Amino acid sequence: RQCPGIEPLCLDLADWAATEAALGAMGPFELLVNNAAVAQLQPFLEVTREALDRSLDVNFRAVLHVSQIVARQMIAQGLPGAIVNVSSQASQRALRDHAVYCSTKSALDMLSKVMAMELGPHKIRVNTVNPTVVMTDMGRINWSDPQKSAAMISRIPLGKFAEVDDVVNSILFLLSDKSAMTTGSSLMVDGGFLVS
């Protein structure tokens, strides 16, 4: 309703064939935001193969695959473009019980840098936004314990978690011409967490 030009498409991004078929029929694309993610928190010694596989499928493999499909279309059409991958401050800082999440987000940051290098000659910019805890449904589930959240908030100089609009506004900047010379960068939306 808010954006009548946007057509929602519901897919299991782990299903490569279905994703390729659906996105191949869409386009042409000029902008892409990869925002799908899961956070299955487990202590390192208790990480299960299922949690690892699911996290890799959603947090890393889906981004790689969707970006390939969209970037190929951009290149074929001769269109410049921008891709923003939603990463996390957890790509830069170890967090207890986040072994898999931190690792997949670190991999996403490096993938984004390689994409920026290889897609730059085609005038396609690639960046990440790396927020702190964001008050989404997933954020509320994982950070609802007051003791756990108080410990994290105490390490954020601005003294609060991010709201959805904080991240959206950063994404809009990276998609826009206002960041025309920005590629291969990670924009921290962390309230200063990484400097504390």
Automatic annotation (TrEMBL):
Gene label: Der
Assembly and binders: Homotetramer.
Family stated for the protein in its record: Belongs to the short-chain dehydrogenases/reductases (SDR) family.
Protein name per UniProt: DER reductase
PANTHER family: D-ERYTHRULOSE REDUCTASE (PTHR44252), D-ERYTHRULOSE REDUCTASE-RELATED (PTHR44252:SF3)
InterPro entries: L-xylulose/Carbonyl_redctase, NAD(P)-bd_dom_sf, Sc_DH/Rdtase_CS, SDR_fam
GO BP, one annotated term: xylulose metabolic process
GO molecular function: carbonyl reductase (NADPH) activity; L-xylulose reductase (NADPH) activity
Record carries keyword Repeat: no
Organism this protein belongs to: Nothoprocta pentlandii
